[in-house]
Amino acid sequence: MVGINCKWVTPCVFAIFISSYLCSTQHTVQAITGFRPCDALISAGFTDRVILATSEDYEDRVAGTWAANARFRPWCFVQPHNTQELSGIIKALESAGSGAGDWHIAVRSGGHHFAGTNGIANGVTIDLAAMNSSSFDPENKIASVEPGARWKDVYSNLLDIGNVTVTGGRDGNVGVGGFLVGGGNSYFSGRTGFGADNVVNFEVVLSNGTIVDANTNEHHELWKALKGGGLNFGIVTRFDIQTIPAVDLAFGSSVISFNHSDRVIDAFVEFADLSEELGADAMIVVYTHDMELNEEDVIVVVRANTEGNLNTTSFDKLNAIPNISSEWVHRSLADIANSSQIEGNIKVSGAALTFLNSPFIFRYAVNLNKQLISRFSRSLGAENFGAQMFIQPLPKYFGDIGERKGGNVLGLNRIPSNAAIWSAGIWIKNGTDADLAVIQAEVHAMAAELRFFAEKQDTAVEFVYLNYADPSQDALGSYGPENVAFMKEVAKKYDPQGWWQRRTPGGFKLSRVDD
């Protein structure tokens, strides 16, 4: 160590350590982050893909997560640009080991789930935003879409290059990856099943960095498990999806007074019992409190016909209800998705349940929701929060379509009759974390009371839609014991060391589901 003149022992030891480190690596001192997994990525040649807190675009990456209360600041982000890079990143992170430290990995495509699902503080966030391409194979009528793409961009691009579309998200800013491996409810679900049912091939990076294709011919069990199984088997880097000829949808919404709530519920219940022959029609009922949009609380009913039929009779009962305003026109899915982006940068808490199709449970839910809004109006001020309660049809034939397309792990065939997904969310823009804690407690108490009422009415359904589920729920377990056992066998085969279970703890994990 010529040239080092140490006055004290500790600085001398430190200098020797640094000198030894630099001699043993190919990197300059700027490569020393002090964080083992970030250093492993840099040592593996991913310097240009690593985003540290000192990087100019670090805060932009933090803001890439939709809800303000779900934004974490990891030790570093890493942004792969293609499948091969992601494979190398996984190998590098695996080689970093664990030691006695407590660091983990998050994976984010669009960032639209509860806190901790796709973000992390102590560790690395793999940000898939740069993997956002979509393409179309006209011969096989297949769209290939990367996980970091947003649905509004996918629809717009596929419309331009092939005049086709796919079964995807309704909010244009939602990411492709999480939506599809969570199942993926869509305007098209009455015709094509959930979004995942239309994926004919998944390109997947496994925990050892191996890249495989999962489809009906190879790795068939992995193909099925990924249709609803979340991040338990690998990271999907390309979804090959059956396309649909693009037509302008018949689309619109009606804004209706709360005074007509009972009639809206009756119209919804009748709609949710319609047969698969009318599967081109879709409806979502939204009870809304948002004083920035309306001075009074209103019911917004979104409706669509995915074949573009303005004369469908499925909405006749709804259309007979007096409304404040109503629209029913032809619009492209790309245009709809682009204008249907729920504002982010808010603190939000929500809950979701599934019930058999019954007016009694929905009326009870409306009353509970009104009471909740009244309490928050007194405590927070009516103008300081927003609230939405959604009711969406889940007819039994949705599950039948999935089975005809090779099956999935959602367990919808376990639901005895037509059902509906209920969800509720409360958000604040300028409130405190203490306010959010109260909101979370109140929303979950409401959900628990609603679940208890449904059980007494024999309308409760075990299924929990993963993409709406909150961290207190067992979404994977709600698929049923056979599907859980199947997914665990698949995970054991493709991730024998359980890397995804212990290294990527966010979201819903099979290791936390009881056998």
From TrEMBL:
Pfam families: FAD_binding_4. Residues 70-246 form the FAD-binding PCMH-type domain. Residues 1-31 form the signal peptide. One of its GO terms (molecular function) is FAD binding. The keyword Oxidoreductase applies. It comes from the Eukaryota. The keyword Metal-binding does not apply. Keywords: FAD, Flavoprotein, Oxidoreductase, Signal. Belongs to the oxygen-dependent FAD-linked oxidoreductase family. This is FAD-binding domain-containing protein. It comes from Corynespora cassiicola Philippines.
